[in-house]
Design a protein that fits this description.
One of its GO terms (molecular function) is acyl-CoA dehydrogenase activity. It is built from 23 helices and 18 strands. By secondary structure, it is α+β, with helices and mostly antiparallel strands.
Length: about 725
Amino acid sequence: MNFELSEEQELMRDSFARFLDEQSSTVRVRAAMPSGFDAKMWREFAELGALSIRVPEDAGGLGLGLLDAALLMEEAGRTLVSGPLAETLVSARLLALLGGQDDLLSRVLAGQAVASIALHDIAQQPLQWIAGGAVAEAVIARKGDEVVLVAVGADDRRAEENLASTPLAEIALGSLPAISLGQGTQAVAQFAQAVEEWKLLIGAGLAGIGREALKLAAAYASQRKQFGQFIGQFQAISHPLADLLCEVDGGKFLVWRAIRNIADGAPEAGAAVSIAAWWNAEAAGRAVAQALHTFGGYGLTTEYDIFLYNLRAKAWPLVFGDPQLLLAEAGRRLYGSEKVALPEAGDCPIEFDLGDDARAIAAEINAFFEKNVTPQMREKFHYSWEGYNPEIHRKLAQAKLLFPGLPKEMGERGLAPYAKIAAMDAFEHQGYNTPAANVAQMVALIIHRFGSDELRKEVLSKLMAGEAIASLGYSEPGSGSDVFAAQCKATREPDGSWRIDGTKMFTSGANLASYVLMLCRTNPDVPKHKGLTMFIVPLKAEGVTIQPVYTFQDERTNITFYDGVRIPDSWRLGEVDGGVRTMSASLELEHGGGFSKVMRAMLKAAEQLCRELQRDGKPLIESTSAQSRLARSMANLWVSDVLAFRAQWTIAEKKPNHAFGPMAKLFSSEKFLTDARDLLDLTAPHSLSKRTGPAGFLNQCYRHAQGTTIYGGTSEVHRSMIAERALELPRTRA
């Protein structure tokens, strides 16, 4: 896996960024209005090679790849470049590939002439809106089975006022002089490739616009005070920005993923292009609207730059038409028979493959389940503690598959981060989510790091052998996600032992476990986060009472009461009043992933059910509406994947981490919930049933998804983390 650009790409991006910061400042962008074209900047930009990066070297260009062009477009979006950059990049490449227009190509590459592209067949739509049409002297268009170059005179490209003051024009291309650039299958395919490339480049540009708009909003919210506080401290301001940061970053990575798919020849590459374009149009539109709203009434004035981002984000993609057409297109490419010619990707160092070690551990886990698990066992598998099977648990421990990610010094495999991801995927594929194993692993790691010799001998050895499991005692009836508000008391006795009194809520698995990892108040006279200590408490100890709490998710949790429970000091973990440091190891594990694995299983179930159900005499999956909705769920799944991959890559490679784990968890849990709701609707009324099969699984997913926005910290907690760490907003929590 790799999210790092090559050294050459970093240098190229930095070079273009420096140029655009100076020559496409908002002062220059405003000066270029209302035409929307800065001719001087355009020529100087061309001198840097910006317009030639996708033109092959033998035609006088730089011959760079799609990712290079996408990086350029991100910077162009960030700086609102005044000119039809995406259209020029694809037009210049088309002129080079089709040939015969050397003079026009050389002038385009020098910034002395503008050529644009008609995105729809002029045989069917002779009158079209053309990006850059107000300044273009030529437009490349498809006309049936022919690709033509339409000459556009000054009288034919009349500029008019438009939403974002871009050089847009509606041109009657069908009635203007045209020459043939190519005819037949190959020429039409090259034109189709150019249109697909345009979608990716516009998507990248929109990601740049959205990211910069959020940055401007966060900066303003960190300076503007209202009611005696910075407005960025109000969660009503910070939380929507945090949500949109996940969507905007996800959009950028969807473009990168589509380029990687094209390079790999992946079957979903065509759909990935459509999804990347649709997603970024949607995400940027919402991001700039929320950013402008952050400025309040000032955002409506032309004194602040945010309105420029708002209008440009809507204008750039709409030249294609309704962005929802792109989602429908993705649906046809995923679930229909639509095929498309895709552009050459070029060099792409971005990599989402987990590697050979990951494939090996996944194969080993799959083989284990094939050998050791019966159909009767599978019938009882469940995503919660209800699916815990002591026999499988012990056998996994014996095969060193129970905790394969724990370090070798603990006697385990010490899998690399990417192999750990693959192992989790394999367990999900088998339907055995093993929260019992996940929590036992967490507790084992903490005991290994902070436990006494006695704890390691008495408890750790049993956890590692699969002979015992543990529960978590963090939440309390009055504290919820604010674990630092714990009031369950641990009082030191004269003999040095501890007496524990209090109540813990949501101690899931306590009815099955032997131990609970407990966070207790040991000092009420210091700030709440400083007076906590962590302990291991045997659940069979005198004074422990476990009462069931049932949820509508077919999952049992518990409320546990501790009345004078005595434990020796050797069962304390870490320093007295040092529980936050001890607990940080477990929070680190909880905040590193997401729910894309179960989202993938849910989508597969929905696809299966849509193939089985009939609507209007044909399978539901042939419906345009169903295809679009499944494609939207696929988009959410892909973004969940890439955000989780970034978080894991950052940890593995020890890169700066700007709340990437909370972003992955927040986004995936929220989209799991919205998709579960929508897919339940799509397949109704069959989805009401709990019968075995895809309908019952969708039913379960809807109920399961409710809790994922709460597990490991609520979405509100994660939004605050993202706002503070990634957007550098003032602290929103006490």
